[in-house]
Specification:
elongated, about 300 residues, 14 strands, alpha/beta, six-stranded mixed beta sheet, four-stranded antiparallel beta sheet, about 30% strand
Length: about 300
């Protein structure tokens, strides 16, 4: 259990984190989101004990963050501090020695878990970005921590590498508490069961991922492709439906495309289909665009600290 209570952090006159509170239960995978400069990395560093808060308290399993709790936490910063001139196996042996871990037992385990078995003989500097991230994960996991904190774990990876690292994080999260800071919102939706959003140093949202995505239901859209209806007539008819907030329509060849913004969570498609049928028009396509986490993020952080 991680408990963050009224925590603040100031650097001179600048307050990077401003009176935030939250708790994370054992076994949760939580996404920590926010614009650049919002205070995410500062918050993560305070949880790990690298920074001491200017105010408030942080507890791990009821104990103040300190020497006794640091061994419970594995931390991988965005740019993992690896020795590029070392062989992977030698580097992990070195990390094991620093952590007081039996390298002969632990290093082979991590090589298998993190998918490093095929590159253990290579120099870290010769590895792909994806494999360097895997080495960074192995480093963070060396002490078998109960809590894993990852800062932009898939930054700079190609799509295949991103998917591989995501699957690895999911697997690791089956037995650990994981906090992920990332700008890739699709990553949060695919991995995290809960989202905490910080903007301007303040916590502005804390909710299960699905609930957070559903809170801005007015942004749901329906897109149509209709035949035998001109744009102005189709627009006027659709705007007459009670669940439609606004509508735009444009000609596309011999058909008309329309985009409807809905006012509530009710599924308006049956009403739309009935209207088109009653008017004697032809319905070629109907597509619903549900509100995304990206939509919610933009709405909540508009005007936040972008420094």
């Amino acid at each position: 259990m991680i408990e963050v209570e009224h925590v603040s952090m100031s650097f001179g006159t600048f307050r990077a984190v401003d009176d935030i509170s939250f708790s994370i239960r054992t076994g949760e995978i939580v996404g920590l989101l926010g614009p650049n400069g919002a205070g995410k990395t500062t918050t993560m560093r305070m949880i790990t004990g690298y920074l001491e808060p200017s105010g408030g308290s942080i507890r791990i399993d009821g104990q103040p963050v300190g020497t006794g709790t640091k061994r419970k936490i594995g931390y991988m910063p965005e740019s993992a501090p690896l020795y590029s001139d070392m062989i992977v196996a030698d580097y992990l042996d070195y990390v094991a020695a620093m952590d007081g871990v039996d390298a002969k037992e632990r290093v082979p385990q991590l090589a298998k878990v993190c998918g490093l078995s095929e590159v253990m003989h290579k120099n870290i500097g010769d590895l792909s970005r994806g494999n360097r991230q895997r080495v960074g994960l192995a480093h963070a996991l060396m002490g078998d921590p109960e809590i894993l904190i990852l800062d932009e774990p898939t930054s700079g990876l190609d799509p295949n590498q991103v998917q591989e690292v995501r699957e690895l994080i999911k697997k690791i999260g089956e037995t650990r508490t994981v906090i992920i800071s990332t700008h890739i919102l699709s990553e949060v939706e695919s991995i995290c069961g809960r989202v905490i959003i910080i903007s301007g140093g303040k916590k502005i949202a804390d909710s299960p991922t699905e609930e957070l995505r559903a809170q801005e239901t007015g942004k749901d859209e329906v897109r149509l492709l209709v035949g035998r209806a001109d744009a102005a007539t189709l627009k006027a008819a659709l705007e007459g439906l009670s669940g439609v907030a606004s509508c735009s329509a444009t000609a596309e060849g011999d058909k008309t495309a329309a985009t409807l913004s809905l006012t509530k969570a009710k599924d308006e498609r049956p009403e739309i289909a009935r209207l088109i049928l009653e008017k004697g028009w032809d319905l070629y396509e109907m597509e619903t665009r549900k509100n995304s986490l990206e939509d919610v993020f933009r709405t909540l952080t508009a005007g936040g600290n972008e420094k």
